[in-house]
């Protein structure tokens, strides 16, 4: 299969030399392992030689590649967390979801890939410089068609959308958003937030309980890399130990009558 | 928003009393906490009383709920692993993916939700009784339209599909599938397998290397539940420590020339 | 080497059939795998047959065996935590240490083995029924000669000892003991506490800082069992995820002059 | 309490500025935070000022401090592992233990502190430059009186000691020592080894089983640091994920008769 002009490819030599680029015939990529010229017709999986003889491969970028390679103005959400969050939220192709704050757009990209062209990501950010960077990251990933960005503080102004399936909250004070998110969600819809500190999780848990959310739970996801070599298999010596705690909850309606 | 007839809902009282059911107006659900009668018009998020006065809520099922509630004939893939696997594979709405073996259909369901109605899951299983059960689980989840099941041993007969974006392999001897999966994948496409034992991972890693796959890596994902109570926050005392090692790799083409 | 009368031995068939007993020539042990009669002269490592033909071995008990096999009236401190705590405290043969509360005496036993006959463990407990049980557990382990027990609430009455090398604190409100422990410790001596909840750790940390302790740090220790079988190595599926957080600190003197 | 001449003290400003020194009255210590002069009479816990006004404290070194501060010619055993190993082995004041290989002497120091002056550590190393460095590390820690070093390959020449309570094995090929360790151990005594790779653990496990050891088990110990700050508690972002797998087993005697 050939890569279409404008598609993102991962030009890969190793984990330390990999480049996420938008394909243009004849494009030149400068790397510390030499210059690579993309051919007129580029096959997925093709092997390319740099001008100093290093081999690079044309790979389909993983969602992780796209999300982790954004230009960062903030800390980003890791795929180990995002994968769990999206499955817990129950979203898929066609879902309408809400995100606050946009940050660098890393989670925006992961959400946008999962909801697909028929879905919708409403993404809110109150700092203009973050939003501009995120928009450009999402555009570069070719996913802007399904994302609506808003420069707004929803803890003050609300979201202006309703019947949302799931809300993804990554702000320092998630508890300020519990009430506006409640209003935006459909009945039974999911709150998902991520916070590094225990105190944030506890304060948010309290606010969720008070607002009537149910099925509140918290988890932490750890990813451990395993080194496989002919002479021996073992976990890598160092790992990311902590990114954040994930808190999830469900909106329910007050008993009628 | 109202639940449509035939949609799956999670009728939820607590983690120990939750029921994944297909909505039919007037349907009765018998539980150890009393009988619940679904109304003619069911609102998402609605509170229902059982005949002994217990409150249940009508929640959108998470992907985890749907995947974990399948009728099991085999061990299943946990959402903590599945989320990472799907993001690493880079799949989303519209993707064409391959699964072997189908098992109880738990991963099939997660894949089917992510690829959406425009995508395609080709799912292979060689034991007929497993396949029958999995098909009925996927049908109950309302996702059969995008899944093609095959009763076949692809290590012998191949897959009969090509240009696949990602292959998900959950069989006891994954190395037997390295060559047929290579043939089925598009260039740059992803191999993702899950195995409980180190020996399986190492043998598969060797086979992948020999067949020319690149970017081979292995990880383990751990999920730790955090208990939040007014008087104290701490991780739960016990956890699932190990489900399996995830191995991922990419197909590349031989240098042309 | 032969077991001396009165020594503790572990009569071991498997992890599910192991018995910590005090050796007496001719003693009979009744188990669910038959009755075992200890011979007049018992060799360390000897194989014994029960009257239904099961084989048991005479093993040196690990500190873990002795500490975990106490009659429990409280939760106990696990060896994974105790080992770290004792090394962090820097104690060894001859050390003088303080323990509060005694609980079931599990940590008392571990401390008593490490400080040896030349050392001293001052162990404080305010509930009489706990103390009685703990004393009998420590006596059974043959270690009572180096332990001084006191039925007292040191948060009210102090410890009545000074120049202690390290204090081990395992009570629900460790912060109430910060000041009396400061008075009991030698300069540079170690505070070591263990608490299950984050809130306890934080409150204790605050109290330690206010009282002038330095080098305050908190860790969590996890133990993961690895299953080794001919056909496959993997971590056991379930594990103890959390017992408690360990907090350590050092007493320093105010600047003189 | 005053520090005796020749005792080791930890001169501590912070985790990044701490110095393990042997006390001599009037000794000067040069650091990147200024020069410190030790007084004629040094109190444990005393606050000292460097010549640029930084405060250092005179702390009792933890076993971890002494063991981790050795001059390293090899990787060392971490306290998280050593604590578990010593408790599993059941050693304490007065124990006679065996160590192979000595490496940098880090575990030798921890063992020597625990067995005390009445105990004995027999430590074997086959590379002379390692042994010399380890001896000087153990001497600096003031523990040489209870350690007997031997420059020898015990897989060839055996240990020349018997009735040992526990053997600690930290060499690349532990299985080569199973038979000599069996001969050196008392009945019921403990084998404890540490290896980074799964393959090493499995090969050693096989050799232990063949030689008749029982109660073979493997664990992995993880230490996670928790950051406590007024504004938030969370695990530190990065951690040591893997040092090694610990394998333990017990020697038993063949059935007599």
Quick summary of this structure?
Four copies of one chain form a homotetramer. Chain A is α/β, with parallel strands linked by helices and 257 residues long.
Structure description:
4 copies of one chain form a homotetramer. Chain A is α/β, with parallel strands linked by helices and 257 residues long. Chain A folds into 2 domains: 8-61, Roll (Vcp-like ATPase, Chain A, domain 2); 65-250, 3-Layer(aba) Sandwich (Rossmann fold). The first copy, chain A, is 25% helix and 35% strand. The first copy, chain A, contains 7 helices and 15 strands. The first copy, chain A, has helices at 63-68, 79-89, 106-115, 128-140, 154-157, 178-184, 198-211; strands spanning 8-14, 17-22, 28-31, 34-37, 47-49, 55-59, 96-100, 120-125, 147-151, 164-169, 185-195, 214-229, 232-235, 238-240, 245-250. In chain A, the strands form 3 sheets. An 8-stranded mixed sheet of chain A has the order 9-8-7-10-11-15-12-13, with helices on both faces. Chain A has a 4-stranded antiparallel sheet with strand order 2-1-6-5, with no helix packed on it. In chain A, helix 6 links the parallel strand 10 and strand 11 (185-195). Chain A is globular, with a radius of gyration of 21 Å. In chain A, 54% of the residues are buried. The model of chain A has no long low-confidence stretch (mean pLDDT 95). Chains in contact: A-B, A-D, B-C, C-D. Chains A and B meet through strand 1, strand 6, helix 1, helix 2 and helix 3 of A and strand 1, strand 6, helix 1, helix 2 and helix 3 of B.
